[in-house]
């Protein structure tokens, strides 16, 4: 997909002309060539239409949609970071919140692109095996967008074909029905998707991507036995954790020189000058000398920093650990220094400024994982791929699902220790050089796997932590209280950033956008809004 030209993507998106989940959303105008009789005749036209479906994942140059923002800043809706989504942290989010309305609208717009494709893919004259693969790819993309809807809103309208304005009133399906739909779609897609592609098709959905998304959806829904089985299917496909030879595979799995490595299962592809994005300029620390006028849209919390163990495998709250509060980053899990930029770290040849000279809402920590320090093509033309699924997550899905289903065995410890060992630049069997997990106690393992998910997947593109604290029913605990930043040089205390507020009676789900309810006779609101 590196060869899918930006001009083609923009043409297809403009041709579809999708804007809203209202009359305009379902109104296919005269310019909509994708549903016209002149389109859908050839394999090339089918391929171009599928490119449009893949483009729903992408930022297109300077056009940063709510959906794209959500991909890189969902951590600021949790206790891991702040900087972008204040209403989700202070409890003020409501049915008229622009982010709620825009994200909901864009996800259904993305789904419509897939529905248009699937409604017409039987028309071109083309190879049948390729047609079936294209169908599987579109079903994967549609399932991905439905998974975001399911995670945030619970039950939502299940729309699987392009609708007309007379069919606007679609009631909400149950959350369980959406999960079943996602699982069924991905099972079918996996059957027709290859394990890998040639160089010209890298970035397309694979069997592993479909099964990983299915395992994720099942884990989130609490279907632990099936989630473990599905994750195991992915583990049999030949993926492996990325090691870079310098002990920084955890960080460098995301970096441009290592794109398409053995750990990446699905990534949004970019290739300047045809396609590029502005993600990285938005997360560079403010007041830092780097081209572009950065705004530090993702600022790491002290809570996230505190989650990393010490090198003896203990938490910093354990009085027997080797944690030194005066030197917080010393003797810590190596992933801490790879995930977080702090005062004194060097970025683009310049030291990071201290927290006292930053804006009042800055924590003093920034997301190193999200930053590309080399090989950019001008401040507004980053083209590092955005990794949405990788093998480490699969191992952690497998381990958690087995733990929660009460079927812990050596394979669970192996999966966790594979991830932990890579953090130290070694392998699982080298137990002298990393703190291996040996306990088989379910309660202890539950705490270990939850912490492991937070530090391994934290601050990546996606919403891992947000979904985790909701499905574990701990959001009401971790999102109530003070969110703090690094120690302020002037006071010697952790900097107070904001007060978090989470109402368990309603905030586990987001409100259905009021504008959608106003347009419908059958949409009902989530409780408490």
Q: Could you describe the 3D structure shown?
A:
This protein is mainly α and about 525 residues long. It is about 40% helix and about 5% strand. The protein has 20 helices and ten strands. It has helices at about 5-15, 25, 45-55, 65-75, 85-90, 100-120, 130-155, 175-190, 205-220, 225-235, 250, 280-285, 300-305, 335-340, 390-405, 410-425, 440-455, 465-470, 475-480, 515-520, and strands at about 80, 265-270, 300, 340, 345, 350, 365, 385-390, 480-485, 495-500. The strands form five sheets. A two-stranded antiparallel ribbon has the order 1-3. Strand 9 and strand 10 (about 495-500) form a beta hairpin. Helix 15 (about 390-405) runs antiparallel to helix 16 (about 410-425). The chain starts with 5 loop residues before the first helix and ends in an 11-residue tail after the last helix. The model is unreliable at about 1-35 and about 290-295 (pLDDT under 50).
Query: Main β-sheet, in a few words?
Result: 2 strands, antiparallel
| Overall pLDDT score | 87
Q: What is the gyration radius calculated from CA atoms?
A: 23 Å
Q: Which H/E pattern describes the elements?
A: HHHHEHHHHHHHEHEHHEEEEEHHHHHEEH
Number of strands: 10
- Which percent range describes the beta-strand content? 5-15%
Low-confidence stretches: 1-33, 289-294
Structural class assignment: mainly alpha
Tell me roughly what share of residues is in helical segments.
Answer: 40-55%
By DSSP (H or I, 4+ residues per run), the number of helices equals: 20
> Distance between termini?
42 Å
Sum up the overall morphology in one term. Answer: globular
Strand order across the largest sheet: 1-3
């Amino acid at each position: 997909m590196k060869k899918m030209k930006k001009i083609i993507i923009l043409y297809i998106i403009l041709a579809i002309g999708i804007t809203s989940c209202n009359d305009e959303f379902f109104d296919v105008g005269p310019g909509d060539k994708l549903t016209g009789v002149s389109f859908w005749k050839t394999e090339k036209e089918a391929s171009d239409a599928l490119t449009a479906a893949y483009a729903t994942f992408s930022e297109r140059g300077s056009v940063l949609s709510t959906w794209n923002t959500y991909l890189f800043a969902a951590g600021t809706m949790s206790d891991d970071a702040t900087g972008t989504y204040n209403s989700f942290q202070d409890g003020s989010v409501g049915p008229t919140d622009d982010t709620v309305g825009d994200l909901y609208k864009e996800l259904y717009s993305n789904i419509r692109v897939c529905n248009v494709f699937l409604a017409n893919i039987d028309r071109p004259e083309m190879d049948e095996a390729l047609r079936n693969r294209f169908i599987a790819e579109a079903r994967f993309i549609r399932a991905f967008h439905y998974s975001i809807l399911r995670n945030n809103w619970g039950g939502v309208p299940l729309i699987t074909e392009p609708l007309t304005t007379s069919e606007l009133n679609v009631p909400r399906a149950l959350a369980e029905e959406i999960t079943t739909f996602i699982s069924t779609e991905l099972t079918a897609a996996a059957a027709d998707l290859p394990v890998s592609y040639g160089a010209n098709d890298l970035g397309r959905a694979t069997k592993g991507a479909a099964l990983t998304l299915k395992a994720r959806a099942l884990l989130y829904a609490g279907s632990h036995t099936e989630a473990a089985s599905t994750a195991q299917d992915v583990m049999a496909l030949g993926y492996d954790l990325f090691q870079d030879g310098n002990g920084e595979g955890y960080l460098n799995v995301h970096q441009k020189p290592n794109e398409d490595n053995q750990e990446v299962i699905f990534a949004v592809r970019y290739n300047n000058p045809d396609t590029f994005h502005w993600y990285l300029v938005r997360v560079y620390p403010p007041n830092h000398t780097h081209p572009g006028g950065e705004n530090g849209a993702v600022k790491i919390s002290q809570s996230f920093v505190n989650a990393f163990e010490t090198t003896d495998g203990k938490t910093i709250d354990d009085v027997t650990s080797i944690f030194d509060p005066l030197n917080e980053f010393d003797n810590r899990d190596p992933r801490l220094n790879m995930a977080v930029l702090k005062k004194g770290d060097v970025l683009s040849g310049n030291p990071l400024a201290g927290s006292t000279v930053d804006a009042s809402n800055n924590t003093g920590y920034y997301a190193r994982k999200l930053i590309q320090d080399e090989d950019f093509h001008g401040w507004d033309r980053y083209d590092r791929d955005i990794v949405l699924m990788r093998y480490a997550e699969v191992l952690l899905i497998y381990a958690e699902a087995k733990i929660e289903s009460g079927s812990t065995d050596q394979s669970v410890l192996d999966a966790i220790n594979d991830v932990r060992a890579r953090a130290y630049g070694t392998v699982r069997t080298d137990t002298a050089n990393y703190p291996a997990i040996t306990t088989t106690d379910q309660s202890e393992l539950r705490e270990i796997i939850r912490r492991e998910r937070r530090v391994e997947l934290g601050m990546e593109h996606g919403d891992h932590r947000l979904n985790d604290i909701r499905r574990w029913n701990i959001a009401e605990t971790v999102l109530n209280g003070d969110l703090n930043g690094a120690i302020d040089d002037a006071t010697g205390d952790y900097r107070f950033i904001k007060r978090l507020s989470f109402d368990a009676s309603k905030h586990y789900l987001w409100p259905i956008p009021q504008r959608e309810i106003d347009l419908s006779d059958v949409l009902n609101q989530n409780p408490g809004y």
